[in-house]
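Exam revision sheet. Question 4 asks you to relate a sequence to its structure. Input first:
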Amino acid sequence: MLLLGFLGGTWYAKTESPQGDSSADKRRTPLVPRSRIVLPGVLGRIDHFGYDGRRGNLFVAALGNNTVEVVNNLRRIHTIVGLDHPQAVLHVQEFDRLVVSDRAGKLRFYDGKSFALLKTVDFGADADNLRYEPREKRVYLGYGSGAIAILDPATMERLPREFQLGSHPESFQFENGGPRIFVNLPNQESIGVVDRTTGTVTKWKIAGATTNHALAFDEASHRLFSAALQPGKLWVVDSDSGRVVATLRIVLGVDDIWFDASRKRILASGHAGAVSVIQQRDPDRYELVAEVPTATGGGTSLYLKTRTSEGLYVAVPNTSQSGSEILFFAVQE
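Answer key, structure tokens:
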């Protein structure tokens, strides 16, 4: 096992190697703790991240604190207030808009530089996951009791077309080489498949997927990765047929999952306090290769590759009575 510390040894991660305890195994640890960002005064649950690649700003949806925290160069530089349980943050670089959804059903547009509020669009209830489709130049929002809405980031207007799903949508992913959107529908124990061209919605029944919030997509191998909050389980699904090709036990409470295409790795962060690292041996074979400890509550994360670094940011709420933290784990081969 490998013992590593953050900032003078005040936080430690002990990484188990499934192959043993040799020096060679230690060098293969897939995630190594590198830094810690302290968020004094930020208490309560933390939800999803956003990122501004132009300025290097990391956005943290501090749901329980009713704020969005803006971090740059490992320190907080700004706090956006006036929110009602923010759930997702999206920066649209070509329009320099920051988009924030919240549980009360509001979608707010901010200026990407000044963070001035530009417009609020009310969806009534539970505005949740956000995605940007760059070819269409459209923002997509999962909201309410069962729909994905579309907005124009230039005008900040809600468009009349949306896709009805029958229950609240959790994470969704675009198909780059085609018109489909894949979306977790845990209340229907299904993955929804939306055709953006025709508007038709198909549902693939995934037995047991009743708490599946996190979803990632390996388009090259035609594989979807859907993870449950409870129990800790990963489903690997053929994106052409909806067939389940593999299942694995992983960390409890996964709220974000990422596919590292260059290394063929899946990274799943769980509220139970670890990141499960799964190696894709081929499209139908997967192996849990590491459980990298984080801290209790670290279910939301952001996998980010920039010019100077590559790794996983993990949100850890309520690390002390004075606030929360963001942990950064560097990826290594």
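Marking note for examiners. The first strand starts at residue 2 and ends at 6.
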